[in-house]
Recover the amino acids of this structure.
């Protein structure tokens, strides 16, 4: 009988891949308190499988795979004790306190929209950049699992390091700390985010990113008002939410749903940003209201929330997003940049708490 060492077991278990982090469970530090007994002709192994969340949708699958892999290398008996980060029971952990890695973040602001394509991510990137240029320490959490774009908008191509305690260090670009689920996967790997898996990833992002101290953390919400949005609201303490819409009725109607979600969950809505408000023709210098005029203004009045700004359609804003240089940085004299800076001044002037 060949004796099995600790590294034989850990290497074998590392073949069990966590689909959310796309890394082996040993590397992720999930295998703890490993005990091996090489007795006569029988090898038995016991360890704790410490997962990040009790709602991990693949925990049963992990156990089956671990047992199979160990059996393949000659382990006769495997005893796996499942626990969650701090060893609490599933139900106790569910009623969790707020993530400790967010405790030094002064304000967490959601940037949300009822539908996709209205420029929510572009606005998140520019507000974050404008706040950083204003001397604030700023982070951006890309929670838009269905269309993550913060990596592109901040020109980030590398993956963050995973620390031995399972925390991630955000990537710093132009002085802004950025973390996104997309950074954990190769770009060609298509990920289907369904209910529990999506919620688990959101929880990981909220619980395991090392922001240190920040003045502002902007969260780029996924569009819509479903379970993922609710998971984020329940998983951290939002100081407020900013709604983004284009001026046409179809976008505004969805924006009302977004407003209801925050109102129902008692998150203060700081205001509405109307994006793609108008286009200035470089030939005639006239403002063209391609998507209709004043839709955002009227909606803000109806919802009794401030209209924080009206961002025109500008090529420099689009190019900034494409080139990883938010417009406030790459084109500081544009109309959009002036609006972004004005909005940040308003946010900075809000009372503490
Ligand atoms: P969302 O996050 O709402 O899905 P994005 O921020 O990804 O939307 O924007 C969708 C597209 O519109 C992107 O190509 C972006 O560059 C472009 N865009 C957004 N806002 C503007 C704007 N004000 N002017 C020009 N292009 C814009």
């Amino acid at each position: 009988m060949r004796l099995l060492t600790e590294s034989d077991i850990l290497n074998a278990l590392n073949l069990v891949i966590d689909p959310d982090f796309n890394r082996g469970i040993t590397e992720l530090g999930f295998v703890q308190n490993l005990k091996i007994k090489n007795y006569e002709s029988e090898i038995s192994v016991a360890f704790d499988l410490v997962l990040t969340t009790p709602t991990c949708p693949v925990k049963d699958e992990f156990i089956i795979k671990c047992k199979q892999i160990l059996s393949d290398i000659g382990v006769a008996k495997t005893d796996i004790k499942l626990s969650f980060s701090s060893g609490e029971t599933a139900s106790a952990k569910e009623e969790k306190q707020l993530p400790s890695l967010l405790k030094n973040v002064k304000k967490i602001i959601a940037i949300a929209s009822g539908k996709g394509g209205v420029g929510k991510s572009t606005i998140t990137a520019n507000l974050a950049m404008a706040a950083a240029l204003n001397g604030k320490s700023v982070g951006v959490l890309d929670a838009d699992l269905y269309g993550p774009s913060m990596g592109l908008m901040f020109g980030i191509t590398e993956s963050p390091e995973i620390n031995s305690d399972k925390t991630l260090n955000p990537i710093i670009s132009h002085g802004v700390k950025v973390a996104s689920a997309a950074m954990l996967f190769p770009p060609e790997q298509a990920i289907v985010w369904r209910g529990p898996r999506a919620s688990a990833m959101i929880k990981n992002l909220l619980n395991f990113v090392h922001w240190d101290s920040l003045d502002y953390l902007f969260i780029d919400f996924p569009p819509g008002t479903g379970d993922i949005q609710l998971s984020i609201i329940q998983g951290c303490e939002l100081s407020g939410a900013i709604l983004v819409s284009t001026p046409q009725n179809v976008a505004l109607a969805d924006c009302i749903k977004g407003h209801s979600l925050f109102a129902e969950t008692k998150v203060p809505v700081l205001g509405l940003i109307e994006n793609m408000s108008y286009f200035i023709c470089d030939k005639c210098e006239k403002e063209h209201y391609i998507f209709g005029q004043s839709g955002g203004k009227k909606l803000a009045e109806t919802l009794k929330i401030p209209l924080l700004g009206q961002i025109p359609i500008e090529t420099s804003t689009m190019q900034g997003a494409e080139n990883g240089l938010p417009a406030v940085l790459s084109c500081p004299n544009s109309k959009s940049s002036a609006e972004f800076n004005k909005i940040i001044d308003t946010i900075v002037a809000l009372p503490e708490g």
Summary: Residues 86-96 have pLDDT under 50 and may be disordered. The chain has twelve helices and 14 strands. Residues 113, 116-122, 147, 149, 275-276, 311, 313-314, 317-318, 321, 336 surround adenosine-5'-diphosphate (CB under 6 Å).
